[in-house]
Structures are given as structure tokens and as C-alpha cells.
Write a structure and sequence with these properties.
Chain B: Keywords: Cell membrane, Membrane, Transmembrane, Transmembrane helix. The structure holds 2 protein chains of 2 kinds. Chain A is mainly α. Chain A is 74% helix and 4% strand. Chain A has a single domain, classed as ABC transporter involved in vitamin B12 uptake, BtuC, CATH 1.10.3470. Chain A contains 13 helices and 4 strands. The termini of chain A are far apart. The radius of gyration of chain B is 21 Å and the shape is globular. The chains are: A mainly alpha, B mainly alpha.
């Protein structure tokens, strides 16, 4: 295996991981953009999607149907979370809402453990998605789920781009993100926009959760927490609240993680997550608006 | 009675009651209840330490458990008996092998080193506000966890850290609790305490009247970290063996629940929150083991207590966001409120 092949292989891995982070981060950014809410429960919505697919395939539902149902289940979960937990405290300070979302996470994960136990269970993947492909005589390998992740990320983000720039609801969401009370004044139904934002974001979380579980091969009630924290870093690197920012941040973070592991000695790379969160802190301090919103100021 | 006299009386009563509980309880109550009292007192130290920055200064840190973990490991490494150190931690630097400290000095060293860590961490982070500081301190918590898992020469990595002598008894914890309450009460109800609340209520106005925002926040953060480190050391000597994940999100969540439930701007509120949550989770824990009513058997539902606590947390957030006590203190006669709070509320109206 030549040096070049090794680097190409790492780039394939980085793009695949970055796509997943981007998918999760986009959902976080949609909700943050509209509500200024740091939604920790987003990771558990991922878990709902993945568990939905695992359970449905377990009782004999065909895989593609199960995926659609899983995404729908995630969207419903997001809707319910907004309705029950977030709407009553919409006007509370930022930190109170952040804590509420932490509590929601805590509840969902413990319900998951209560019902499904915390031991991981298999994620059933049809054989066609489980094959691996080789290039340059086996030096570069990728599985079809890698390819599917990248392709689905691309397609779904194009769809999102169309939604927020071409539809009335999407434009309304951006108006609400810009200035909630002004949007209300010009007659937009802000409540409905927030519900749509949650449903869209949660559907993305469901898709991301299914792809994450497909790559890991297992589902587990607390599976959403790590990707959530990482997506959080990705969103802040790119510019929290901006969809393009989430995309950029996701790929940067994916590349950073893969390259830390691939090119640094193991004594350093075992500290990968510490490095990632140090980058997060550095961004919050130096450029809190992220790469794409350089002019955003935060007050002391 | 004047305010001064009332506070003096309150402190006296509290000290006497604490001493009676500390030395009397083990003779009267079963081990189970003594353990509950000990845990309440221990958690009270941790929550009070948290309240200094999160409640009084308005810097909502999610990273204090990182300080608790650091304190636990530092004092653990210092106080494992020399004979066992060789076997448990063979790769420690030589000078740490040579000695082991008794409980009290190990706890003090843990507190001081943790406070120094807080200076380093807090100096940049205290510039941030709102949810930015929460997220950044959460990043700090994760970094501490990664370091504890990877610095296996010092911490045995993800394996259980064990061999810490079990020296945390009720009098020790009550003593440290008394010191914590005393120091924090002196601090919060002093001119510096007013500065803290001013920084919390209106940062711009505070700096306009000459209060150093960064300095005030940093001092509150560092003192809180000192008591977190001390509490971590007490925790370590209570558990005897623990792992990096003992000091992670689950503990963070439970301490924050206690703080928010009790009321973030009140020392007695913090203690009330600890007592309520501890007693409630004790009751729930015995319920979740399963029980029978007549012929109807309720099966064991492990984890149900956390779910109930989570719901209570959300209900408090919705219906009583200031917690049980808000910013009032439990004193004799009338309740005390700080002047700055009243003024802010006036302005909001």
C-alpha cells in the first residue's frame, strides 16, 4: 500500500464521518436558528429513529419501509418534545432552556434503558448495503453504507436548501430565525414555523441516527449522546444557527478526527476527544460566531 | 432582634445541631440512615460549591464535576498507603511513591490544586456568558474525562481506581460542610457578594460602577472549585474505589437538579434542594426494586427513579423556575432578600 493510497483511504473515511456529523449538526442548527435553543435531546431523537428501524425489521417489515417509518418516528418524537417540554419555557433564559433539554435527554435515555436495557443490540442491515468495494487493488476500501451516507447527505441537504430558499414555510423559518417578533408582526404563524422546524430537524436526526447505527452495526439507548456532542462542536465551528456553517463544520470536524487518528502517534491520538473539545473552547473564545459568521459579537 | 443577632443565633443553632447530628447520629440511627445523612451533607458541599458561580454570579458552569473528579483523583493518589501504591500504580513518578498523606492534608492539597486548575481554566472561560460558558465548561468536563481515562500512569485509566482508605465519616463531612457554609455565607453576604450579584443581574451596569466583571467571576469560580476539589476528596474517601465515569454527566445532572430545585440564589435553598432530591431518590430507589400491593405485584423498574427526577426537573423549570427558595434564605423571623435582586425586579416591572 503506497502512501498516496493511505491518504486517499483517510479522505474517504473523513468524508463519510463528516457527512454524518453534518447531518446531525444541520438539525441542531435549524432548531438553534429559530429558537436559540441548544437542543441536547437531538441525540435521543437519533436514537428513536435507529431503534424504530431495528424493531420494525425485527418483526419482519422490509428494510426501506422500516427506514421511512424510523424517520417518521423521529419526527414525531421531535414534535412531542417541543410540545411537552420546550413550548412552556420558550421565553425562559437560554440556560434554563439548555438545562431543560438536558433533562429531556436524561428522561429519554433512562426510558430507553428501562425498556430495552443498556446492552447493545444488533442493527439489521440488508446484505446489499453490507458489501465492501475495493479500489487500486484493495488499498482503498469502502462499504456501500459509506457511499450511501455521502449520497444521502448530499441529496437531503439539497432538498433542505430548496426548502428554505424556495418555499413559503422555509422563507418564514428564516424570517423567524432573523427576528422572531418581527416575523410575528408581519403575520407569520410563529408557532407553526417552530413546529415545522422541529419536525424537519428531527427527521434529519432520524436519518442520521439510522446511518450512524448502520455504520456501527448496533443500537443502544445512549447511542445518540456522543454524536450529539460532536455535532455540537461541528455546528459551533461552522457558525451555530447557520445551515451552511453546520455543513462546513461537519466536514472539518470529520477530517480533523480522522487525521488525528491516522497521522499522529497513538500517545497523542488517544486524546482525540480532548483535542476536539479544546478546539470547541478555542472557537467559543476567539470566534464565537464560527467560520461563517465572523461578525457576530457576544457580550461579556 | 437585629439582623446581626438573628444571623449569629442561626449560625450557633446550625453548628450545635450539626455537631449533635455528626456525633450523635451513629449511636441512635441505623447505618442506613447515617449513610443517607452523610451523602446529603457531602452533596450539600458539592452543590454549595456549584451555587457560587452558577447561582450567585450567573456563570452557569456544567464543568464543576470535572473539578470534583480532579479533586478525587488527586487526593486518592496522595493518600493510598505506600505499600499498595507500588502494586496499584506502578508507573507513578518516583517522588509520589515515596510518601502518602493522611486524610486532611490530602484533602487540602486536592482543594488547592483544583483551585489552581480553576484559575487556568477560568481565566479564559470567564469572558464568556450565557449558554456559551455552559457549553465551554461542558467541553472542560469532557476534556477532564478523556485525560483521566488516558493518563493511566496516574489514574489506572478506565479501570477502577481503588485502594483509597475509607476515612470519610459523618463528623468529617459535617465539619467540612460547616466550613463551606461559613465561608460562602461570609462571601455571599459581603460587599463582594453584592458585586457577584450585580455581575449576574446586569453585566454592563456592574462594570459601569467599577466592578471588575472578569475578576469577580474568576474569584467565585475558583473558590467554588476549591470546595469542589475538597468535596471530590471526601467523595473519594467515601467510595474507596471509583472510575472516570463516576465523575461525568450523571453526577453533573444530579447536582444541577439539586441546585435548580432548591433555588439558585440562596445558600439554604441549595441545602433544601439537596435534602429534597436525596430523600426523594432514596424513596424512589426502594420503590423501583419492586413491591406488592395485595395480590398485585409491581415489578422492579430500574432507572425509574431517574425518569421521575427528570420530570420533576422539567416541571420545576416550567412552574417554578426560581426553585423552592428562589433567592430567599431561611432565617428566623422574616426572610432576607438581597437589595440588588429587588432593584432588578423593580426595573423589570
Amino acid at each position: 500500500m503506497t502512501q498516496l493510497d493511505y491518504i486517499l483511504q483517510q479522505i474517504v473515511n473523513a468524508v463519510s464521518l463528516g457527512s454524518l456529523y453534518a447531518l446531525v449538526a444541520v438539525g441542531l442548527s435549524i432548531v438553534f436558528g429559530v429558537l436559540k435553543l441548544t437542543n441536547f435531546a437531538h441525540g435521543d431523537v437519533m436514537m428513536v429513529g435507529a431503534f424504530g428501524v431495528a424493531l420494525l425489521v425485527g418483526i419482519g417489515v422490509p428494510f426501506p419501509v422500516a427506514v421511512i417509518c424510523g424517520i417518521a418516528a423521529a419526527a414525531v418524537a421531535g414534535f412531542l418534545i417541543e410540545r411537552i417540554a420546550y413550548r412552556p419555557i420558550r421565553d425562559a433564559p437560554d440556560v434554563a432552556r439548555l438545562l431543560t433539554s438536558l433533562a429531556v435527554t436524561y428522561i429519554i435515555e433512562n426510558v430507553g434503558i428501562l425498556v430495552f436495557t443498556s446492552s447493545p443490540r444488533n442493527f439489521p442491515l440488508p446484505d446489499i448495503l453490507n458489501t465492501s468495494w475495493e479500489m487500486s487493488n484493495g488499498a482503498i476500501t469502502f462499504t456501500s453504507i459509506n457511499l450511501l451516507t455521502i449520497a444521502l447527505t448530499f441529496v437531503s441537504l439539497l432538498l433542505l436548501g430548496w426548502f428554505i430558499t424556495r418555499t413559503t414555510t422555509g422563507l418564514g423559518m428564516r424570517a423567524a430565525a432573523e427576528d422572531m417578533s418581527a416575523a410575528h408582526l408581519v403575520g407569520l404563524n410563529v408557532n407553526r414555523l417552530i413546529i415545522v422546524a422541529f419536525i424537519v430537524a428531527s427527521a434529519y436526526a432520524g436519518l442520521a441516527g439510522i446511518l450512524w447505527a448502520a455504520q456501527a452495526g448496533v443500537v443502544q439507548p445512549q447511542m445518540g449522546f456522543t454524536p450529539l456532542l460532536k455535532a455540537f462542536v461541528a455546528a459551533i465551528i461552522g457558525g451555530f444557527g447557520s445551515i451552511a456553517g453546520a455543513l462546513v463544520g461537519g466536514y472539518i470536524l470529520g477530517a480533523l478526527e480522522i487525521f488525528i487518528v491516522a497521522f499522529l502517534p497513538s500517545s497523542v491520538s488517544s486524546y482525540r476527544d480532548a483535542i476536539v473539545f479544546a478546539v470547541l473552547i478555542a472557537f467559543l473564545l476567539v470566534r464565537p460566531g464560527g467560520l461563517l459568521q465572523p461578525n457576530r459579537e457576544i457580550k461579556l | 432582634m437585629s439582623r446581626e443577632a438573628r444571623i449569629t443565633l442561626l449560625v450557633l443553632v446550625a453548628v450545635v445541631a450539626g455537631a449533635v447530628v455528626a456525633f450523635g447520629a451513629p449511636h441512635v440511627l441505623s447505618d442506613y440512615f447515617v449513610r443517607i445523612i452523610l451523602l446529603i451533607a457531602l452533596n450539600a458541599i458539592l452543590v454549595l460549591a456549584l451555587s457560587l458561580s452558577n447561582g450567585f454570579t450567573g456563570v452557569f458552569s456544567l464543568g464543576h464535576v470535572g473539578f470534583i473528579g480532579a479533586g478525587a483523583y488527586i487526593s486518592g493518589i496522595l493518600s493510598i498507603p505506600v505499600q499498595q501504591k507500588m502494586a496499584l500504580l506502578p508507573h507513578l513518578p518516583g517522588f509520589l511513591h515515596a510518601f502518602s498523606l493522611p486524610f486532611l492534608p490530602a484533602t487540602l492539597v486536592a482543594g488547592v490544586l483544583t483551585a489552581l486548575l480553576a484559575v487556568v481554566v477560568g481565566y479564559p472561560l470567564m469572558r464568556l456568558s450565557g449558554y456559551f460558558v455552559s457549553v465551554a465548561t461542558m467541553g472542560f468536563l469532557i476534556i477532564v474525562n478523556v485525560v483521566l481515562i488516558n493518563a493511566s500512569d496516574f489514574t489506572r485509566g478506565a479501570r477502577t481506581f481503588t485502594g483509597v482508605p475509607l476515612e470519610t465519616t459523618l463528623p468529617w463531612v459535617m465539619g467540612w460542610l460547616a466550613i463551606t457554609v461559613f465561608v460562602l455565607a461570609r462571601l455571599v453576604y459581603s460587599p463582594f457578594g453584592r458585586a457577584m450579584k450585580a455581575v449576574r443581574d446586569d453585566t454592563i451596569a456592574a462594570s459601569a460602577v467599577g466592578i471588575g466583571v472578569l475578576r469577580t467571576r474568576l474569584i467565585a469560580f475558583v473558590i467554588g472549585a476549591f470546595f469542589s476539589g475538597v468535596g471530590g476528596s471526601l467523595y473519594a474517601h467515601y467510595l474507596g474505589s471509583f472510575s472516570p465515569n463516576t465523575f461525568y454527566f450523571a453526577l453533573t445532572m444530579s447536582l444541577i437538579t439539586m441546585l435548580v430545585l432548591g433555588g439558585m440564589g440562596s445558600l439554604t435553598g441549595a441545602v433544601v434542594g439537596v435534602i429534597c432530591v436525596s430523600l426523594l431518590s432514596e424513596v424512589l430507589r426502594s420503590v423501583e426494586r419492586g413491591f406488592t400491593i395485595g395480590d398485585f405485584a409491581v415489578p422492579a423498574l430500574f432507572g425509574a427513579s431517574q425518569i421521575v427526577l427528570g420530570f420533576i426537573f422539567i416541571l420545576v423549570m416550567i412552574f417554578r423556575p426560581k426553585g423552592i427558595m428562589g433567592d430567599r434564605e431561611l432565617t428566623f423571623g422574616s426572610t432576607q432578600r438581597s437589595a440588588t435582586v429587588n432593584q432588578t425586579e423593580e426595573r423589570k416591572r
